[in-house]
Amino acid sequence: MKRHVLSLDLGSSSGRAILGSFDGERLEAKEVGRFYHQPRELREGLCWDMTALRAGVESAIGEAEKIAGSIDAIGIDTWGVDYVVLDGRGEPVLPARTYRNARVERFYREFEAAVPPEVAWAATGIPNQTINTSAQLFADLRGEDAACFDAAAHVLLLPDYFAYLLTGELGWSAAIASTTGLAAPGARGWSEEMLGRVGAKAAWFGDISPERSVVGTCRRTGAKVIRSGTHDTAAAVHSLGSVADGDLYISCGSWTLTGTLVDEPVLDADAHLAGLTNEVRVDGGIRLLSNGTGLWIMQQAMEQWRQASPELDVEQVTAEAAAAPSAGWVFDLNEPSYAAPGQMADRVAQAAARDGVTLRGRGQVARTILESIAVAQARAMRAVSPYASSSARVLMVGGGVHNSLLCQLIADACRREVETHSAEGSALGSLIAQLQTLGDLAAGDAPTIETNLEHVRTYHPVQSARTDYLEE
After folding, report:
1. What is the pTM of this model?
2. How many whole angstroms separate alpha carbon 243 and alpha carbon 456?
3. Is the dihedral of CA 370, 373, 375, 378 positive or negative?
């Protein structure tokens, strides 16, 4: 008898539902739903379209039931840091604002005065960033809608909110909590000091539960809703059955997270200076990583180009990039000016022009974006490598593995072998974690099970590749 488990992998622009059927040896996975959503500009600023997300989740569960007959478990993962504020009846008191919402910038200087970077690092193992839940909540509590918090009873991170919608059970999960800048190192509890400095009430947050635990029962299907890597990167890294402590990995999507696995949080000054962050793994250990912008800029450039050529696809643009010569110029993807959406290709070309470089055509702009991602990975690896005992190769997972030019550029820039794995790493990791929680796979293992979601390819660094622009 097959076990049927469902991964709801909610990304910042699309959601995917992957149904896994496990016969004890092989995990056969099938996409049963894919839907797209866009943030909306409301009075409260840029907010997530929670109606579209909720409808996508409900539709995907219905489709999975039609195919499988019954579902044994459901796991939900999302991007980090964003949250929903609920009143005592479980209703939102505000729209769910995005981490790109401009209100944080207005209060960020005040935030860092109240929460100095060294205090945040010692209290949480997370460096201060504008996207952090801590910075967002600080701004919300001081902005024009601060009075809404008079009715606040709970603050739920997004995967915990969707689990609440399915089960009616409130919960706070370790992997997603570790992204907030409000939890103690390793998310073993909430940091009283950080909550106090931000001005958040401890009562809004409940006990943090480990991954691979059951939230409750889905009221619609009777399936167990499982914490199976509530942060998408935690789930993605869990899919890498061959990754071990000390190995290097890249999870590449709209964001790139480049890191290594360690047993305990790393809180030394060098890690803080390097901008590293301690986030919780599915197995309870730590992902020590560098968090940066990834394919977001390419995604935004594609949106601009499609305004003129609606049929344009990523494959065509990547082919043009491969054929274009390197401009020998790269840019900092984490520069705040690239955080907002809109006319991204023009903004990259204009930045190059300010440095005296002319990017000729769409292909060279695209190549420059991909080279900039590759250079960012090389720099991130230099920051992480002192904590990685084995750094000869890099395991890569996520949507970026589809782009063979990007993978080769990363291998060249990092001067390391890059082994790519599942493009649907978050979904695969979630399915594995659900099966471990149900007892179908050993909880203490990170097994490499046979599955149609896994496709391994190796990229070797090309010695003749141009990498002079790597020098800082």
Report:
1. 0.93
2. 13
3. negative
